[in-house]
Amino acid sequence: MHIALVGYMFGDGGIQTHTDTLAQGLAQKGHEVKVITPAEMANHKGDPITANGYEIIVQSGLKDALGGFGLRGWAEAMVVAGTGWNSMIGTLRSGPNCRKIFFEVMSGKPGGAKDPRRLVHLGFDAIVGQGKPVEDRFCKEFKWNGPRCTIAALPGELALPQVNETPPAGDKPLRFAHFGRLARHKNVSLLVEQWDAYGEGATLDIWGGGEDADHLKDLIAQKGLGDQIKLKGRYPSGDAYSQLLTEYDLTLLPTIGEEGAPLVLLESMACGVPFVANGVGGIPDYTNQDCSVTSKGIDEFMPLLQEMIARIRTQGINRPRIQNFYANTFSPSVLTDRWEAYLSEQVALN
């Protein structure tokens, strides 16, 4: 197949990771893949992703979009991840023999009357949500009644570390971590504010940077928690990231934002580390017997954390089972197969 993926390819982020990993996977299966990216954005600068087995085309604006990114007659399927007027217009102009698919990687919530995602009604053939709640919300909010399905976004390729079952911790100190951008909607302050009540016998490392870092630093100092909660800054990538994750007993994501389905939770499972997360966006799709996801809002988060601590202390952690759930459900190879099968079905409809 001739497949075009439209997504931003500068810096770090879920769209970049998904698009790069899927493009590589499809190319390795023998498909011709081109990735169309907007030019580097002033508010999201970063190094360009290096193409591996596929071609990256940087679109220069509306003129390129009106020309279908130069892919009219070539592309058999075009998948747009994220939003942007030019990305949507360029896909619509990709020609009558190209299946046009929108991949909702956000929460499905509209961004106002001028949200470019409303262009799906002008000629897109199908939408894919990265989680079932995301798919349902998108279809409701944008009044989409056409073909729809759920396929998760791809995480990056991680070398799965060797993991073993962890015996009950008893009274041993526990190590928790939060990985991700430090924005107010990530709600990391909840952990600091309620640490005295729920964090006894544990430490918390907060990895990442962002606009909420200074606020968290001040809050930690005000509460005298500097020995128990530490801001660690930027976290590594690749094998070093995998090894770092395995050092923890639990990862925490108390986000209250309009999330899609954060890849950090997949990465945690890939390393056999359980998590507690607030069930917004597509996060409920990650639920399994070894991890906890709220079902009724953020007020459940800290009590679920307390229950998880008790479980780790009395039952231990079945790390191989967590890793196997990831490998059989959300690994790049499994999800690439799902995307390939889906795109083959779509192309057959041309």
From TrEMBL:
GO terms for molecular function: 2-deoxystreptamine N-acetyl-D-glucosaminyltransferase activity. It holds the Pfam family Glycos_transf_1. Residues 171-287 form the Glycosyl transferase family domain. It comes from the Bacteria. InterPro entries: Glyco_trans_1 (IPR001296). The keyword Phosphoprotein does not apply. Its EC number is 2.4.1.283. Keywords: Glycosyltransferase, Transferase. This is 2-deoxystreptamine N-acetyl-D-glucosaminyltransferase. It comes from Pelagimonas phthalicica. The gene is neoD.
